Amino acid sequence: MKRIGLLGGTFSPVHWGHLLLAEFAREQCALDEVWFIPTATPPHKPAQGLLPARARLAMVRLAIKSNPAFRACDVELRLGGVSYTIRTVRCLRERFPRHRWFLIVGSDLFAVPWVEFSELCRLCTFVAAERRAGVRPRRVPGIRWLTMPRVDISSSMVRERMRRGQSLRYLVPDAVAGYLARRHGRRTT
């Protein structure tokens, strides 16, 4: 039985904060792999302004290429529609019934409503990291909290810097910055 961490998100674009979260979760939860799952259509944020789904998947693949424990998973892109975590977890459990699942999230995600949250807690272990100071909801039972430095990088900040033609160096992996530069014809480093 493999222990698999699931890290979902828009990854528009993937940045060092995502990679650090995945690595700390992998290490502290003794995970065999962490699967990065780009959303098809996010349920809690507007889809406009996001990079196309296939581009986001391509950037994830570039970002994780050097880590053999990281894997890009296109399950939500194949399912299509709005990406609800419960649907994704059920699909993966059906395909890989012997794996043990760990859902990796930032603490800010506990502020939004989850579809079938109780069922998700039954199907996988939640692993959370504080995203912002003071956002650790004690009312959520059964959460495994990670010890890691807070990294204040967001995809929206990266997109804004890109829009302004500012450097993305040290915010995203070099391969991702190169992909964005080729795709948008702007200097990103």
Task: Give an overview in words.
This protein is of the alpha/beta class. The chain has a single domain (3-148), classed as Rossmann fold (3-Layer(aba) Sandwich). Helices cover 36% and strands 16% of the residues. It is built from 7 helices and 6 strands; from the N terminus they run E-H-E-H-E-H-H-E-H-E-E-H-H. It has helices at residues 16-28, 53-64, 75-79, 85-95, 117-123, 155-163, 174-184; strands at residues 3-9, 33-38, 70-72, 100-106, 125-129, 144-145. The longest helix has 13 residues, at 16-28. The radius of gyration is 16 Å and the shape is globular.
Which tags fit this structure?
single chain; globular; 36% helix; 6 strands; alpha/beta; Rossmann fold; 189 residues; six-stranded parallel beta sheet
The description of the largest β-sheet is:
6 strands, parallel
Radius of gyration using CA atoms only: 16 Å
- Sum up the overall morphology in one term: globular
CATH class: Alpha Beta
| Number of helices, counting only DSSP H or I runs of 4 residues or more | 7
What is the CATH topology descriptor? Rossmann fold
From the 3D coordinates, which CATH architecture would you assign?
3-Layer(aba) Sandwich
Structural class: alpha/beta
One letter per element, helices H and strands E, the order comes to: EHEHEHHEHEEHH
Relative helix content: 25-40%
Mean pLDDT: 90
Instruction: Name the strands of the widest sheet in spatial order.
Output: 3-2-1-4-5-6
Write out the CATH superfamily name: HUPs
Instruction: Give the count of structural domains.
Output: 1
Sequence stretches where pLDDT stays below 50 over 5 or more residues: none
Proportion in β-strands: 15-25%
Instruction: State the end-to-end CA separation.
Output: 42 Å
Count of strand segments: 6
